[in-house]
Amino acid sequence: MMEAETTTKDIDKVMNNAWKAFHEYRKLPLKKRADFMRAMAVALEEGGDTLLEIAVSETNLPLARLRNERTRTAFQLTSYADACERGNWLEATIDTKHDENNKPLPGLRKMQVPLGPVVVFGASNFPFAYSTAGGDTACALAAGCPVIVKAHPAHAKTSDWVADIILQTARILNLPDGIFTHVHGGNETGKQLVQHPYTKAVGFTGSFAGGMALYNFANQRKDPIPVFAEMGSVNPVFILPGKIREDAETLAKNMAVSITLGSGQFCTNPGLMIAIKSEELDRFMSLLGEQIRLTEPATMLHPGIYNSYVEKREIALSQAKVETVAVAEHDALGNQGTPTIASVDAAAFIQNNLLHKEVFGPYSLMIQCDNLEQMQAVALSIEGQLTASVMATENDLHENVLLIESIKNICGRLVLNGVPTGVEVCQAMHHGGPFPATTDSRFTSVGADGIKRFSRPICFQNWSNDFLPEELKNENPLHIYRTVNNVLTKDPLI
Ligand code: NAP
Q: Is residue 271 lining ligand 1, measured as CB closer than 6 Å?
């Protein structure tokens, strides 16, 4: 582990080690990779309260929330380990012909192989789940890639502890040196890591500016590499007329909780609401305002995030036609973010791109539309998002097919009658979305499908059984699902 600012010489050494480790690690059986990840999960939980207390002191997040987040991180490691062994992510595909004795000929056989060393930039708002031993690290290790984590300065000590746990686990299991490295440093270190010739992919969670900087560094290389950057979202919530008439109270309560959860510091925070002007909407806004006024402000992750919230909130509230609807009544102390909701006319929103941007914190803007056509125009004006939600009755859904189609176009996860906060870790989850929510809408950063980000296909043509990897041999010794002559099966080829 590198303690101080990492120099160019250090980076070269780290990357050379990672490259060397790659050639050993990629050859290890899937079971060994999975065992490593499961052992990491156990060791992480064994970090006990001491580790949690360090994280509390660095992030201001409550102990209970961090305990849950660590359990979630351990679950990510074990569930991605299971997926790694199940092997569906390998997408093993075999197209054969048979000889005159009906014996399978080599034909064409395809599978996913690891990309190479992956550089991971952890998130400030998830010190465990999207950081050192978080989702990107777990996916890259499952794919067979060594990982180099650049510690987030907002929780550097927590990151050190977790890195020690990973390194110790790797040592106990006799895994190659260089399979995991933890470095500290500023923007220049990040740039050099992304541009090092032995880096083959990047995982990132954070701001649009940060994600795009890394994406551009990667594209300036002689050999551009993929950057999987998750850069935030305003997660619009479309509230249709039938639903607001039916249950304004529950809607207002649920929205207030979602807007202020974790002081709004989630990439799935609902930063925009869209509804049609009506008496029911006025009532909903008044109920939501009541909830927001009663919410106690909470301390934000670090002074940088707090200052950015104060600045972006002020800019948003000062735009033409924006009205402040409700502000928390409790005094905000220190770095506490003040829960706030505002409202704007749809025409003003469509014209003013600044209002489309993320205000990272407990803030949400209601866009008031004249009619359904204008709501459709708002949907068309919104950029790519991680999530969009539709609050609707069955009748609303039948009557607004075109609107729903437009919303599908802008998001990676479409929620019906639920809030966007809360991202379940399972295979069917998609945590991604069209640019600018991410740099590659085809992939997810939550759920075992995220492993695919760090692999690429290779097709073997005419290779006889003895020389094929285990995954593609006639006998199917790993007993994985494969698509053989267009049929998904675990059967061996005979
Ligand atoms: P950040 O500024 O994007 O930083 C995240 C990581 O990227 C850090 O390790 C940082 O390294 C690196 N980085 C950023 N800009 C870079 C550059 N130009 N060159 C090289 N490396 C760079 O995110 P943050 O510190 O977590 O929070 C800042 C803002 O991001 C928040 O106020 C919020 O708006 C947004 N945010 C969004 C999400 C989300 O999920 N959408 C999550 C967290 C934060 P250094 O430490 O060297 O700068």
A: no
Dihedral sign for Cα atoms in the order 472, 473, 477, 480: positive
Ligand 1 close to Cβ of residue 302 (< 6 A): no
Q: How far apart are CA 494 and CA 492, in angstroms?
A: 6
Rounded distance from Cα 287 to ligand 1 centre (Å)? 35
- Which CATH topology does 237-416 take? Aldehyde Dehydrogenase; Chain A, domain 2 (3.40.309)
**Ligand 1 pocket check: which of 61, 119, 184, 207 to mutate, most ligand atoms within 8 Å of Cβ?**
207
| Centroid of ligand 1 to alpha carbon of 216 (angstroms) | 15
Distances (CA, A) of 330 to 252, 305, 325, 327, 341: 20, 20, 16, 9, 15
| Ligand 1 proximity of 285 Cβ (cutoff 6 Å) | no
pTM: 0.95
Could you list the pLDDT tens digit for every one of the 494 residues in the chain? 554 567 888 999 999 999 999 999 999 999 999 999 999 999 999 989 999 999 999 999 999 999 999 999 999 999 999 999 999 999 999 998 878 888 777 789 999 999 999 999 989 999 999 999 999 999 999 999 999 999 999 999 999 999 999 999 999 999 999 999 999 999 999 999 999 999 999 999 999 999 999 999 999 999 999 999 999 899 999 999 999 999 999 999 999 999 999 999 999 999 999 999 999 999 999 999 999 999 999 999 999 999 999 999 999 999 999 999 999 999 889 999 999 999 999 999 999 999 999 999 999 999 999 999 999 999 999 999 999 999 999 999 999 999 999 999 999 999 999 999 999 999 999 999 999 999 999 999 999 999 999 999 999 999 999 999 999 999 999 999 999 999 999 999 97
Catalytic positions, written as ranges: 230, 267
CATH code that applies to domain 8-231+441-456: 3.40.605.10
Q: Is the CB of 104 under 6 A from ligand 1?
A: no
- Reference 451, options 473, 479, 423, 427; nearest CA is 427
Q: Where are the domains of the chain?
A: 8-231+441-456, 237-416
Q: Hey, do 8-231+441-456 and 237-416 end up sharing a CATH topology, with the first three levels equal? A: no
Q: How far apart are CA 64 and CA 72, in angstroms?
A: 12
